[in-house]
Write a structure and sequence with these properties.
The structure is a single chain. The protein is α+β, with helices and mostly antiparallel strands and about 160 residues long. It folds into 2 domains: about 30 residues; about 130 residues, Protein of unknown function DUF192 (Jelly Rolls, Sandwich), CATH 2.60.120. The protein has 4 helices and 9 strands, in the order H-H-E-E-H-E-E-E-E-E-E-H-E. The strands form 2 sheets. The protein has a 7-stranded mixed sheet with strand order 6-5-8-3-2-1-9. A hairpin with a 2-residue loop joins strand 1 and strand 2.
């Protein structure tokens, strides 16, 4: 008798609660805090012999969001931004909460690393520091600050598995 009466009531209450959270946007903020490793868009690249799990940003929306509002980035992981050949994008730390290394990549080679780029909380968009590629690129990799030094990633390092992105 319990299952016939109370179980449907409990299920309806849970459904109403979930719908309420979704309509108020509270569930979305929970989903945004999930770690990068839960993303189905995760791929693997290698820089020299170092394996890195990367979340891929291809669309304008994915690139604009980047790693903003992330509380942490898993060890040996990052986000790779895919650009048209011979692009020269500009990056900033808008709404970014963690320090990063920005790795500029062209033709399967690292061409530069911007190390230990710090968040700039409270600054207006026009006050944020801008980071430009040293030359034309086709990929940009963001990883935890210090990752490049720890793994000896520098200009000339070879990047593999980019074709799988």
């Amino acid at each position: 008798m319990f299952k016939q009466i109370f179980l449907p009531i409990i299920l309806v209450a849970a459904f109403i609660t979930l719908v309420g959270l979704l309509t108020q946007g509270k569930f979305n903020s929970f989903l945004e805090k999930l770690p990068v490793s839960n993303n189905s868009n995760l791929k693997t690249i290698f820089i020299d012999d170092k394996e890195i799990k990367v979340e891929v940003a291809k669309t304008s929306e994915e690139k604009a969001k980047g790693l903003s509002n992330r509380e942490k980035l898993d060890k040996n992981s990052g986000m790779i931004f895919v650009f048209d050949k011979d692009s020269k994008p500009i990056f900033w730390m808008k709404d970014t909460k963690i320090a990063l290394d920005i790795v500029w990549i062209n033709d399967d080679k690292v061409i530069g690393v911007e190390k230990n780029v710090q968040p700039e909380p409270g600054k207006k968009d026009n006050q944020l520091k801008k980071y430009s590629a040293p030359t034309k690129i086709d990929y940009v990799l963001e990883v935890n600050a210090g990752f490049s030094d720890k793994n000896n990633i520098k200009s000339g390092s070879t990047v593999q598995k980019l074709s799988d992105l």
